[in-house]
Amino acid sequence: MNEPAARRATYDDLLELSDDVVGEILNGTLHTQPRPAPRHASAASRLGATVTAEFDDGFDRCGGWRILDEPELHLGEDVVVPDISGWRHPRLAELPDTAWIEIAPDWACEVLSPSTAGRDRVVKQAIYAREGVAHLWFVDPNARTIEVFSLAEDRHWSLVRAVEGETSVALPPFDSLEFPLARLWS
């Protein structure tokens, strides 16, 4: 017996969600998860604050960035919500009037949770590659690690660096900023 074709999720499906969940449309499928747990939220907030303080003024050594926490990105038919994203100012000089951004970021950061790590590492990583996101970080607050990937011209990811523990690091694309990893884990 033939199964009926699954209906592709739409933006209206996202609008119907309650405020206590995060929703994304990935490859036509609606995915939901509860708001991040405190350890996850703390790591994302501290990393976002660290990067924003150094780079999000428009006049830094790297040419200026716009750093946003949990932006809603409309990338083709996908609606993706990374934990933190950054655009070089020339690519996103003005914020749109919409609730979402249609320009892929130059940097995306996913803070891994046990329930979303597989989706982040497989489905969302492929979407970021397709859209040309140059740098991708995976932050794991439970393992106390950061993995830094760079996108090659053939749209494949290359692991640039993996760090763990409490050492001080400077990671691309923010090589001029050295910060202690311990700041993220406390």
Strands, total number? 12
CATH T-level fold name: tt1808, chain A
How many separate structural domains?
1
Strand proportion, as a percent range, falls in 25-35%
Shape: globular
Sheet of most strands? 6 strands, mixed
* CATH C-level: Alpha Beta
- Termini separation comes to 54 Å
Helix count equals 4
CATH superfamily: tt1808, chain A
Overall pLDDT: 92
Oligomer: single chain
Residue ranges: pLDDT <50 for 5 or more in a row? none
Provide an overview of this structure.
The chain is of the alpha+beta class and 186 residues long. It has a single domain, classed as tt1808, chain A. The chain has four helices and twelve strands. The strands form four sheets. The chain has a six-stranded mixed β-sheet, sandwiched between helices. A two-stranded antiparallel ribbon has the order 1-2. Strands 4-5 form a two-stranded antiparallel sheet. The chain starts with 10 loop residues before the first helix and ends with a helix. The mean pLDDT is 92.
SSE map:
Blueprint: H1 11-15, E1 21-26, E2 29-34, H2 38-55, E3 65-69, E4 73-75, E5 78-80, E6 84-88, E7 107-111, H3 117-130, E8 135-140, E9 145-151, E10 157-164, E11 168-169, E12 179-180, H4 182-185
Parallel strand pairs: 7-8
Antiparallel strand pairs: 1-2, 3-6, 4-5, 6-7, 8-9, 9-10, 11-12
Outline:
This protein has helices at residues 11-15, 38-55, 117-130, 182-185; strands at residues 21-26, 29-34, 65-69, 73-75, 78-80, 84-88, 107-111, 135-140, 145-151, 157-164, 168-169, 179-180. With 186 residues, the protein is an alpha+beta fold.
